[in-house]
Amino acid sequence: xxxxxxxxxxxxxxxxxxxxxxxxxxxxxxxxxxxxxxxxxxxxxxxxxxxxxxxxxxxxxxxxxxxxxxxxxxxxxxxxxxxxxxxxxxxxxxxxxxxxxxxxxxxxxxxxxxxxxxxxxxxxxxxxxxxxxxxxxxxxxxxxxxxxxxxxxxxxxxxxxxxxxxxxxxxxxxxxxxxxxxxxxxxxxxxxxxxxxxxxxxxxxxxxxxxxxxxxxxxxxxxxxxxxxxxxxxxxxxxxxxxxxxxxxxxxxxxxxxxxxxxxxxxxxxxxxxxxxxxxxxxxxxxxxxxxxxxxxxxxxxxxxxxxxxxxxxxxxxxxxxxxxxxxxxxxxxxxxxxxxxxxxxxxxxxxxxxxxxxxxxxx
Length: 364
Hints:
Elements: E1 26-29, H1 37-43, E2 49-53, H2 60-67, E3 71-75, H3 84-96, E4 101-106, H4 108-121, E5 125-129, E6 140-145, E7 148-153, E8 161-164, H5 174-193, H6 199-221, H7 226-246, H8 250-262, H9 266-281, H10 286-296, H11 300-310, H12 317-320, H13 324-334, H14 345-356
Parallel strand pairs: 1-8, 2-3, 2-4, 4-5, 5-8
Antiparallel strand pairs: 6-7
Helix pairs in contact: 3-4, 5-6, 5-7, 5-9, 6-7, 6-10, 8-9, 8-13, 9-11, 9-14, 10-11, 13-14
Protein backbone atom coordinates (compact mmCIF):
# COMPACT_ATOMS: atom_id res chain seq x y z
CA UNK A 1 0.00 0.00 0.00
CA UNK A 2 1.44 3.34 -1.04
CA UNK A 3 0.86 6.53 0.86
CA UNK A 4 0.19 9.77 -0.94
CA UNK A 5 2.75 12.49 -0.38
CA UNK A 6 1.37 15.63 1.17
CA UNK A 7 0.91 18.56 -1.17
CA UNK A 8 3.79 21.03 -1.09
CA UNK A 9 3.04 24.11 1.00
CA UNK A 10 1.70 27.10 -0.86
CA UNK A 11 4.20 29.87 -1.45
CA UNK A 12 3.91 32.81 0.90
CA UNK A 13 1.57 35.57 -0.19
CA UNK A 14 3.43 38.65 -1.37
CA UNK A 15 2.34 41.80 0.47
CA UNK A 16 3.51 45.01 -1.17
CA UNK A 17 4.01 48.21 0.86
CA UNK A 18 0.79 50.19 1.21
CA UNK A 19 -1.00 53.01 3.00
CA UNK A 20 -4.52 52.61 4.34
CA UNK A 21 -7.01 55.23 5.46
CA UNK A 22 -10.68 54.37 6.09
CA UNK A 23 -13.36 56.61 4.62
CA UNK A 24 -16.60 56.81 6.61
CA UNK A 25 -19.67 55.57 4.72
CA UNK A 26 -22.61 54.04 6.54
CA UNK A 27 -24.05 50.99 4.73
CA UNK A 28 -27.51 49.57 5.47
CA UNK A 29 -28.07 46.23 3.70
CA UNK A 30 -31.02 43.87 3.50
CA UNK A 31 -34.45 43.18 1.98
CA UNK A 32 -37.08 45.76 2.85
CA UNK A 33 -34.63 48.28 4.26
CA UNK A 34 -35.79 51.09 1.98
CA UNK A 35 -38.23 51.80 4.81
CA UNK A 36 -35.27 52.99 6.90
CA UNK A 37 -34.26 55.83 4.59
CA UNK A 38 -36.28 58.38 6.57
CA UNK A 39 -34.55 57.31 9.77
CA UNK A 40 -31.17 57.67 8.06
CA UNK A 41 -32.13 61.18 6.95
CA UNK A 42 -33.04 61.97 10.55
CA UNK A 43 -29.71 60.58 11.74
CA UNK A 44 -27.99 63.09 9.45
CA UNK A 45 -30.21 65.88 10.73
CA UNK A 46 -31.90 66.45 7.36
CA UNK A 47 -35.18 68.35 7.33
CA UNK A 48 -35.58 69.43 3.67
CA UNK A 49 -34.67 66.59 1.34
CA UNK A 50 -34.41 66.56 -2.45
CA UNK A 51 -35.38 63.16 -3.87
CA UNK A 52 -33.66 62.33 -7.16
CA UNK A 53 -35.50 59.44 -8.76
CA UNK A 54 -36.91 58.56 -12.16
CA UNK A 55 -40.70 58.37 -12.05
CA UNK A 56 -40.44 54.64 -12.83
CA UNK A 57 -37.84 53.87 -10.15
CA UNK A 58 -38.94 50.93 -8.00
CA UNK A 59 -39.85 52.02 -4.50
CA UNK A 60 -40.28 55.67 -5.45
CA UNK A 61 -43.80 56.09 -4.10
CA UNK A 62 -42.95 54.21 -0.91
CA UNK A 63 -39.95 56.45 -0.39
CA UNK A 64 -42.03 59.59 -0.92
CA UNK A 65 -44.48 58.37 1.71
CA UNK A 66 -41.70 57.45 4.12
CA UNK A 67 -39.96 60.82 3.83
CA UNK A 68 -43.24 62.65 4.48
CA UNK A 69 -42.73 66.29 5.46
CA UNK A 70 -38.96 65.93 5.02
CA UNK A 71 -39.47 65.87 1.24
CA UNK A 72 -38.99 69.41 -0.07
CA UNK A 73 -38.39 68.63 -3.77
CA UNK A 74 -38.78 65.64 -6.07
CA UNK A 75 -36.60 65.65 -9.19
CA UNK A 76 -37.44 63.00 -11.81
CA UNK A 77 -35.41 64.13 -14.83
CA UNK A 78 -32.54 61.66 -15.11
CA UNK A 79 -30.14 61.08 -18.03
CA UNK A 80 -27.17 58.78 -18.48
CA UNK A 81 -23.68 60.30 -18.31
CA UNK A 82 -25.15 63.32 -16.39
CA UNK A 83 -25.31 66.16 -18.94
CA UNK A 84 -23.76 69.31 -17.49
CA UNK A 85 -26.79 71.46 -18.27
CA UNK A 86 -29.07 69.01 -16.46
CA UNK A 87 -26.78 69.01 -13.43
CA UNK A 88 -26.80 72.80 -13.37
CA UNK A 89 -30.60 73.02 -13.51
CA UNK A 90 -30.94 70.46 -10.73
CA UNK A 91 -28.38 72.29 -8.60
CA UNK A 92 -30.23 75.59 -9.02
CA UNK A 93 -33.49 73.90 -8.02
CA UNK A 94 -31.86 72.47 -4.90
CA UNK A 95 -30.53 75.88 -3.89
CA UNK A 96 -33.83 77.63 -4.63
CA UNK A 97 -35.75 75.17 -2.46
CA UNK A 98 -33.16 75.40 0.31
CA UNK A 99 -32.73 71.64 0.59
CA UNK A 100 -30.25 70.36 3.16
CA UNK A 101 -29.72 66.85 1.81
CA UNK A 102 -30.12 64.60 -1.21
CA UNK A 103 -31.69 61.15 -1.54
CA UNK A 104 -30.98 59.32 -4.81
CA UNK A 105 -33.00 56.29 -5.85
CA UNK A 106 -32.08 54.37 -8.99
CA UNK A 107 -29.07 53.36 -11.03
CA UNK A 108 -25.80 55.10 -11.71
CA UNK A 109 -27.44 58.02 -13.50
CA UNK A 110 -29.50 58.98 -10.43
CA UNK A 111 -26.50 58.59 -8.16
CA UNK A 112 -24.38 60.54 -10.62
CA UNK A 113 -26.81 63.47 -10.68
CA UNK A 114 -26.83 63.60 -6.87
CA UNK A 115 -23.02 63.65 -6.94
CA UNK A 116 -23.00 66.49 -9.47
CA UNK A 117 -25.21 68.57 -7.17
CA UNK A 118 -23.13 67.69 -4.10
CA UNK A 119 -19.92 68.65 -5.89
CA UNK A 120 -20.91 72.33 -5.84
CA UNK A 121 -23.14 72.44 -2.77
CA UNK A 122 -21.54 69.96 -0.36
CA UNK A 123 -24.98 68.53 0.44
CA UNK A 124 -24.90 65.04 2.02
CA UNK A 125 -26.26 62.13 -0.03
CA UNK A 126 -28.30 59.12 1.03
CA UNK A 127 -28.00 56.75 -1.95
CA UNK A 128 -30.45 53.92 -2.63
CA UNK A 129 -29.04 52.01 -5.62
CA UNK A 130 -31.28 49.79 -7.73
CA UNK A 131 -28.52 48.44 -10.00
CA UNK A 132 -25.13 46.88 -9.30
CA UNK A 133 -22.46 49.34 -10.36
CA UNK A 134 -21.10 50.23 -6.92
CA UNK A 135 -20.41 53.87 -7.81
CA UNK A 136 -22.50 54.89 -4.80
CA UNK A 137 -19.53 54.08 -2.55
CA UNK A 138 -16.95 56.12 -4.41
CA UNK A 139 -15.84 59.77 -4.53
CA UNK A 140 -15.76 59.58 -8.34
CA UNK A 141 -18.09 61.77 -10.37
CA UNK A 142 -18.66 62.34 -14.10
CA UNK A 143 -20.53 64.83 -16.28
CA UNK A 144 -20.90 65.12 -20.03
CA UNK A 145 -20.86 68.11 -22.35
CA UNK A 146 -19.88 68.73 -25.97
CA UNK A 147 -19.53 64.97 -26.54
CA UNK A 148 -16.88 64.64 -23.85
CA UNK A 149 -17.19 63.11 -20.39
CA UNK A 150 -15.38 64.91 -17.59
CA UNK A 151 -14.60 62.81 -14.53
CA UNK A 152 -12.96 63.59 -11.25
CA UNK A 153 -12.62 62.65 -7.61
CA UNK A 154 -13.87 64.69 -4.66
CA UNK A 155 -14.83 63.52 -1.18
CA UNK A 156 -17.84 65.87 -1.21
CA UNK A 157 -19.62 63.55 -3.66
CA UNK A 158 -19.16 60.32 -1.70
CA UNK A 159 -22.57 59.44 -0.18
CA UNK A 160 -22.82 59.57 3.59
CA UNK A 161 -25.22 56.60 3.68
CA UNK A 162 -25.95 53.81 1.21
CA UNK A 163 -29.10 51.73 1.63
CA UNK A 164 -29.06 48.41 -0.25
CA UNK A 165 -32.43 46.69 -0.61
CA UNK A 166 -32.24 43.71 -3.02
CA UNK A 167 -36.03 43.67 -3.34
CA UNK A 168 -35.74 46.88 -5.39
CA UNK A 169 -33.78 44.99 -8.07
CA UNK A 170 -36.29 42.19 -8.63
CA UNK A 171 -37.82 43.98 -11.62
CA UNK A 172 -34.51 44.63 -13.39
CA UNK A 173 -34.64 43.07 -16.87
CA UNK A 174 -31.76 40.80 -17.95
CA UNK A 175 -30.49 43.40 -20.43
CA UNK A 176 -29.82 45.72 -17.46
CA UNK A 177 -28.83 43.14 -14.83
CA UNK A 178 -25.96 41.57 -16.76
CA UNK A 179 -24.16 44.72 -17.93
CA UNK A 180 -24.62 46.32 -14.51
CA UNK A 181 -22.95 43.32 -12.89
CA UNK A 182 -20.05 43.64 -15.35
CA UNK A 183 -19.75 47.30 -14.38
CA UNK A 184 -19.14 46.12 -10.80
CA UNK A 185 -16.63 43.52 -12.02
CA UNK A 186 -14.80 46.25 -13.93
CA UNK A 187 -14.47 48.15 -10.66
CA UNK A 188 -12.91 45.07 -9.11
CA UNK A 189 -10.23 44.75 -11.77
CA UNK A 190 -9.44 48.46 -11.55
CA UNK A 191 -8.83 47.91 -7.84
CA UNK A 192 -6.72 44.78 -8.36
CA UNK A 193 -4.17 46.46 -10.59
CA UNK A 194 -4.34 50.04 -9.28
CA UNK A 195 -1.10 51.57 -7.93
CA UNK A 196 -3.22 52.60 -4.91
CA UNK A 197 -4.33 49.03 -4.14
CA UNK A 198 -3.88 47.58 -0.67
CA UNK A 199 -4.63 44.17 0.90
CA UNK A 200 -8.16 45.21 1.88
CA UNK A 201 -9.16 46.52 -1.56
CA UNK A 202 -7.73 43.39 -3.18
CA UNK A 203 -9.63 41.11 -0.79
CA UNK A 204 -12.86 43.02 -1.45
CA UNK A 205 -12.32 42.85 -5.20
CA UNK A 206 -11.64 39.11 -5.24
CA UNK A 207 -14.65 38.29 -3.07
CA UNK A 208 -16.85 40.55 -5.17
CA UNK A 209 -15.83 38.70 -8.34
CA UNK A 210 -16.46 35.37 -6.61
CA UNK A 211 -19.94 36.44 -5.54
CA UNK A 212 -20.95 38.11 -8.81
CA UNK A 213 -19.76 35.29 -11.06
CA UNK A 214 -21.72 32.81 -8.92
CA UNK A 215 -24.89 34.93 -8.73
CA UNK A 216 -25.24 36.25 -12.27
CA UNK A 217 -25.78 32.90 -14.07
CA UNK A 218 -28.42 32.01 -11.48
CA UNK A 219 -30.40 35.12 -12.41
CA UNK A 220 -30.26 34.19 -16.09
CA UNK A 221 -32.23 31.06 -15.18
CA UNK A 222 -34.40 32.62 -12.47
CA UNK A 223 -34.65 36.45 -12.43
CA UNK A 224 -36.82 36.27 -9.29
CA UNK A 225 -34.11 34.62 -7.15
CA UNK A 226 -33.82 37.13 -4.29
CA UNK A 227 -30.71 35.50 -2.83
CA UNK A 228 -28.90 35.87 -6.15
CA UNK A 229 -30.07 39.49 -6.32
CA UNK A 230 -28.67 40.03 -2.83
CA UNK A 231 -25.43 38.41 -4.02
CA UNK A 232 -25.08 40.92 -6.83
CA UNK A 233 -25.78 43.83 -4.47
CA UNK A 234 -23.24 42.48 -2.01
CA UNK A 235 -20.75 42.21 -4.87
CA UNK A 236 -21.53 45.80 -5.86
CA UNK A 237 -20.92 46.91 -2.27
CA UNK A 238 -17.52 45.21 -2.20
CA UNK A 239 -16.61 46.45 -5.68
CA UNK A 240 -17.53 50.02 -4.83
CA UNK A 241 -15.62 49.82 -1.56
CA UNK A 242 -12.51 48.68 -3.42
CA UNK A 243 -12.83 51.23 -6.21
CA UNK A 244 -13.49 54.04 -3.76
CA UNK A 245 -9.95 53.63 -2.43
CA UNK A 246 -8.06 52.37 -5.47
CA UNK A 247 -9.44 54.63 -8.22
CA UNK A 248 -10.01 54.00 -11.91
CA UNK A 249 -7.73 53.47 -14.91
CA UNK A 250 -7.68 52.47 -18.58
CA UNK A 251 -10.89 50.41 -18.54
CA UNK A 252 -12.96 53.29 -17.21
CA UNK A 253 -11.24 55.88 -19.41
CA UNK A 254 -12.15 53.91 -22.53
CA UNK A 255 -15.75 53.41 -21.40
CA UNK A 256 -16.14 57.07 -20.43
CA UNK A 257 -14.87 58.11 -23.87
CA UNK A 258 -17.23 55.71 -25.63
CA UNK A 259 -20.11 56.97 -23.51
CA UNK A 260 -19.33 60.67 -23.79
CA UNK A 261 -18.61 60.63 -27.53
CA UNK A 262 -21.20 58.11 -28.74
CA UNK A 263 -23.73 58.12 -25.88
CA UNK A 264 -23.28 54.38 -25.42
CA UNK A 265 -24.52 52.76 -22.22
CA UNK A 266 -21.73 52.82 -19.63
CA UNK A 267 -22.53 49.38 -18.26
CA UNK A 268 -22.82 47.75 -21.70
CA UNK A 269 -19.46 49.11 -22.79
CA UNK A 270 -17.88 47.62 -19.66
CA UNK A 271 -19.27 44.19 -20.54
CA UNK A 272 -17.74 44.38 -24.02
CA UNK A 273 -14.41 46.07 -23.31
CA UNK A 274 -13.43 44.53 -19.95
CA UNK A 275 -12.29 41.08 -21.20
CA UNK A 276 -9.95 42.77 -23.68
CA UNK A 277 -8.39 45.11 -21.10
CA UNK A 278 -7.98 42.17 -18.70
CA UNK A 279 -6.18 40.22 -21.45
CA UNK A 280 -3.81 43.15 -21.93
CA UNK A 281 -3.01 43.31 -18.21
CA UNK A 282 -2.82 39.60 -17.36
CA UNK A 283 0.93 39.07 -17.87
CA UNK A 284 2.08 41.49 -15.12
CA UNK A 285 -0.56 40.27 -12.66
CA UNK A 286 0.24 36.66 -11.68
CA UNK A 287 -0.91 37.21 -8.09
CA UNK A 288 -4.47 38.31 -8.90
CA UNK A 289 -4.70 35.87 -11.81
CA UNK A 290 -4.02 33.01 -9.40
CA UNK A 291 -6.57 34.31 -6.89
CA UNK A 292 -9.28 34.50 -9.56
CA UNK A 293 -8.61 31.11 -11.16
CA UNK A 294 -11.27 29.28 -9.07
CA UNK A 295 -13.95 31.61 -10.47
CA UNK A 296 -12.71 32.57 -13.96
CA UNK A 297 -10.26 29.83 -14.91
CA UNK A 298 -6.60 30.09 -15.79
CA UNK A 299 -7.30 32.86 -18.33
CA UNK A 300 -9.53 35.43 -16.60
CA UNK A 301 -10.12 37.39 -19.81
CA UNK A 302 -11.52 34.34 -21.56
CA UNK A 303 -13.54 33.47 -18.45
CA UNK A 304 -15.15 36.92 -18.51
CA UNK A 305 -15.84 36.73 -22.24
CA UNK A 306 -17.50 33.34 -21.87
CA UNK A 307 -19.50 34.56 -18.86
CA UNK A 308 -20.83 37.49 -20.90
CA UNK A 309 -21.72 35.22 -23.83
CA UNK A 310 -23.35 32.67 -21.56
CA UNK A 311 -25.51 35.37 -19.97
CA UNK A 312 -26.64 36.75 -23.32
CA UNK A 313 -24.72 40.03 -23.08
CA UNK A 314 -23.36 41.96 -26.03
CA UNK A 315 -19.73 41.07 -26.68
CA UNK A 316 -18.90 43.49 -29.48
CA UNK A 317 -19.07 47.26 -29.73
CA UNK A 318 -20.87 47.13 -33.07
CA UNK A 319 -23.91 45.71 -31.28
CA UNK A 320 -23.94 48.85 -29.13
CA UNK A 321 -23.72 51.25 -32.08
CA UNK A 322 -19.98 51.91 -32.43
CA UNK A 323 -18.22 51.92 -35.81
CA UNK A 324 -14.59 51.53 -36.81
CA UNK A 325 -14.23 55.21 -37.67
CA UNK A 326 -14.94 56.03 -34.01
CA UNK A 327 -12.05 54.02 -32.61
CA UNK A 328 -9.09 56.26 -33.37
CA UNK A 329 -10.45 59.29 -31.51
CA UNK A 330 -11.26 57.14 -28.47
CA UNK A 331 -7.78 55.61 -28.57
CA UNK A 332 -6.16 59.05 -28.81
CA UNK A 333 -8.09 60.25 -25.77
CA UNK A 334 -7.23 57.13 -23.71
CA UNK A 335 -3.57 56.79 -24.70
CA UNK A 336 -1.16 57.26 -21.83
CA UNK A 337 -3.75 56.46 -19.15
CA UNK A 338 -2.18 54.82 -16.09
CA UNK A 339 -2.18 51.05 -16.63
CA UNK A 340 0.01 48.07 -15.65
CA UNK A 341 0.96 47.76 -19.35
CA UNK A 342 1.79 51.17 -20.87
CA UNK A 343 -0.63 51.96 -23.70
CA UNK A 344 -0.31 54.06 -26.83
CA UNK A 345 -2.79 54.86 -29.58
CA UNK A 346 -2.05 51.76 -31.76
CA UNK A 347 -2.36 49.43 -28.75
CA UNK A 348 -5.74 50.80 -27.70
CA UNK A 349 -7.03 51.02 -31.25
CA UNK A 350 -6.12 47.36 -31.82
CA UNK A 351 -7.84 46.40 -28.54
CA UNK A 352 -10.98 48.28 -29.56
CA UNK A 353 -10.84 46.68 -32.99
CA UNK A 354 -11.03 43.25 -31.40
CA UNK A 355 -13.90 44.44 -29.21
CA UNK A 356 -15.67 45.77 -32.30
CA UNK A 357 -15.13 42.61 -34.31
CA UNK A 358 -16.52 40.09 -31.78
CA UNK A 359 -13.06 38.55 -31.41
CA UNK A 360 -12.04 36.62 -28.29
CA UNK A 361 -9.76 38.65 -26.00
CA UNK A 362 -5.99 38.32 -26.37
CA UNK A 363 -3.04 40.27 -25.08
CA UNK A 364 -1.97 41.72 -28.45
